[in-house]
Amino acid sequence: MFTPTKYMTPNFETDAKLPMKVPGAAETDLFMPAKSRTLAYLIHGVTGTPAEMKYVGRKLWQSGYDVYLPTLPGHCAKIRDLLRSNEQDWVEHVVKQLSFLRTRYTHVFAAGLSAGALLALKASTRVQLDGIGVFSPTFFYDGWNVPRTRILLDLAIRWFPRPLHYVFFHFDGFPYGIKHPALQARLRAAYNPMNRVLNPFRKRTSPRHYSSEAVGYPIFFLKTLADLDRLYAVLKADLAKITAPTLVLQASEDDFTSVRNSEFVLSQIASAEKKLVLLDDSYHVITVDRQRDVVAKELQKFIAAHTNPRPATDLSVCTTVRLTGCPDEELLSPV
Prior knowledge:
Elements (H helix, E strand, L loop, with lengths): L17 H4 L8 E3 L5 E6 L10 H9 L3 E4 L9 H6 L2 H16 L4 E7 L1 H9 L7 E5 L14 H10 L9 E3 L9 H10 L2 H6 L13 H4 L3 E3 H17 L7 E6 L8 H9 L4 E7 L12 H14 L11 E7 L12
Parallel strand pairs: 2-3, 2-4, 4-5, 5-8, 8-9, 9-10
Antiparallel strand pairs: 1-3, 6-7
């Protein structure tokens, strides 16, 4: 079974050590080379990790595409590192890396999960992309599992003094954006306070070791939520500038953000070609949940359609597809 490593040396004629050259590359970045002139750049969500995108990336790699999974600034480290980063750092990091990769590939696609999807959309206004993948976009916290007390967080962000933004936080509780019971159980164990305390004393090879590289951060400080709010505001003003072909995927039962978010993106972007795929057996983190294979297949078809010659057709429409009854293949690790 293919297992991506931190630095996988591609067999390129031009770039023998691409991961080492990418601006801001971290040890937790994942590069999967396939000698392709097409690259898929897959962005994880805020407080998440590149591992969220690993399954989809592996499937694209098996289809013959080069795949790069970046690590956003402040992630896969300590909470204090996340608090030292902000939305501008995340945007500039993605733009800088995509600008570098754009000069080395014939085709470049960017896709992201949750806030990562918004970063892909934002980057497309500054870097020419051949297509954008938008997975579970997050503008409005209106999923079925979002408590009504969520409005208190908005008030706290607005009225609390800045220093208190580093003190108060929201815990990412059950079901953690996951519908699959086995993955829920793994994350419940990873986020258990006792395991968080004992984790530094365990070997990294231990099955009970839950590093931030594997499971991300279980909490959102007010400071990070404020950073995200600023990202939402900036992107909303730029959506009309987006013209690249866009594929949007979201679960109809998304526990964190409703389908209204996807519909908002499609109604605001200027792309002539856009498609919405609704999944019926997943929650928010669709790249690791029960229909992750569908996500990978849809993105693979999307990339193939925009890298191979196609007959002229009318693309000035928005298509919506509902996918149901997808088989649940054997799962790897949840993230």
